[in-house]
TrEMBL record:
The lineage of its organism: Eukaryota, Metazoa, Chordata, Craniata, Vertebrata. InterPro entries: ELMO_dom (IPR006816), ELMO_domain-containing (IPR050868). It comes from Oreochromis niloticus. One of its GO terms (molecular function) is GTPase activator activity. It comes from the Eukaryota. PROSITE patterns: ELMO (PS51335). GO terms for cellular component: membrane. The gene is ELMOD2. This is ELMO/CED-12 domain containing 2. It holds the Pfam family ELMO_CED12. Residues 227-383 form the ELMO domain.
Length: 398
């Protein structure tokens, strides 16, 4: 792993003077070692250039002050922005076709050195910090929240990094602390506090949602639990209202896509989460769920409705766990995402997969994994769009 070796040393917090270049350079000194220590102030980064004497004396010489008149500083910032076309001030994407190693080196150099200088320069021109520029320069949703999340993750300040793990009850206090650290005055930027608060609700809410989903996935379906049993029987009644279930253990369960006489064995992988998703779809989109079931019972294009539904629950869970669903939830929930929003996503997947399956007309159910992966790739492609909203547009009871 590469170790950071920088060119500049931050030792002085004094304001920089107006000049165009480096003065007082001792050209006779050749054995020079360099190091860097970043100091952050409420007003940004102040950066006189220093070199350490490599002769063992431990002395530090000031080579000069890097400064520009106001117009030259603006021109220099514009040049940097042109050469480094950042999206949300994250690392620019450069295509090194020779080897991936050069891409890693570029990312390392940018995130470890160039990004801080770029932020400092832009702040001197605009008088605003990166979070302010993100909140004011992007509309609410994934475009804003993902950039704010990256900015907080990349920060060297403990208050900013800690905001990502703040509880919902402490968010307002956390926003106030960030504004204090960044010296943001509410009178000058009245919309910032509310904008950042919503971003943090979405960011921390996503983590909380994953925890809730994981808890349901780990909860084992139990025949001894009356609530679990009632939920299973409710699924049957919603999908097969005119057919009476002969008994709890019966081959009739195969009519709605379970593999055996007792459906509980099919919930092992996704636990109670798989059943809850099936019931949620059937209860809130009853007509659509029955339509999907009729397609699943087609003599040629049919598939196991319940088993495929549980499989799609696993797909939704994996996307959530990997963070791929962040753009979707950031665009569709202006606050903290809840379990119902995850169930809504499952409904979208169940309905859209059925449409996809029927349109593809696979020769056999034995090709399920192949088409499932193809559908998965389509969803992941959609999720790369910053404006993505995987929302079922058909009617819902709620």
């Amino acid at each position: 792993m590469l170790r950071h070796s920088s060119i500049l040393t931050y030792r002085d917090r004094r304001p920089v003077n107006v000049s165009l270049g480096i003065e007082n350079l001792d050209e006779g000194r050749t054995n020079v070692s360099t190091s860097r220590k970043r100091e952050e102030s409420d007003n940004g980064y102040l950066c006189p250039l220093l070199l350490e004497d490599g002769g063992g004396g431990g002395r530090t010489q000031q080579l000069g002050r890097l400064t520009f008149c106001s117009i030259d500083l603006k021109m220099f910032c514009c040049l940097l922005l042109f050469l480094l076309p950042c999206r949300g001030e994250s690392a620019p994407e450069i295509d090194f076709r020779s080897e991936n190693m050069f891409g890693y080196i570029w990312e390392y150099v940018y995130t470890s050195f160039l990004r801080y200088w770029l932020k400092w320069l832009i702040r001197q021109v605009t008088g605003t910090c990166e979070l302010q520029r993100i909140c004011s320069g992007h509309k609410p949703g994934a475009a804003r929240t993902t950039k704010a999340e990256y900015s907080l993750q990349s920060s060297k300040n403990k208050v900013l990094r800690g905001a990502l793990e703040t509880t919902k009850d402490s968010l307002e206090q956390c926003v106030d602390q960030i504004m204090k650290v960044k010296n943001i005055k509410p009178a000058k930027d009245p919309k910032f506090k509310e904008s950042l608060h919503i971003c943090l609700l979405q960011i921390t809410g996503y983590s909380s949602l994953y925890t809730s989903v994981e808890d349901l996935r780990k909860e084992v379906f139990s025949s001894d639990n009356p609530e679990h049993e009632a939920m299973l029987l409710k699924l049957w009644d919603l999908l097969m209202p005119t057919v009476k279930l002969e008994s709890r253990i019966t081959k009739q369960w195969g009519d709605i896509g379970f593999q055996g006489e007792d459906p509980k064995t099919d919930f092992r992988g996704m636990g109670l989460l798989g059943l809850i998703n099936l019931v949620f779809f059937s209860e809130n989109y009853t007509a659509e769920a029955r339509q999907v079931l009729s397609h699943a019972n087609h003599p040629k294009l049919g598939y196991s409705y319940a088993i495929v539904g549980i499989n799609l629950t696993e797909m939704a869970y994996s996307l959530l766990k990997s963070g791929a669903l962040k753009p979707h939830f950031y665009n569709t929930v202006q606050g903290t995402p809840e379990l119902q929003h995850f169930h809504q996503l499952y409904c979208y997947l169940a309905y859209e997969f059925d449409k996809f399956w029927v349109a593809e007309e696979p020769e056999s159910i034995m090709q399920f994994n192949q088409y499932r992966e193809k559908f998965h790739n389509i969803i992941r492609t959609h999720l790369q769009d910053p404006g993505v909203c995987l929302t079922l547009t058909v009617g819902s009871k709620n």
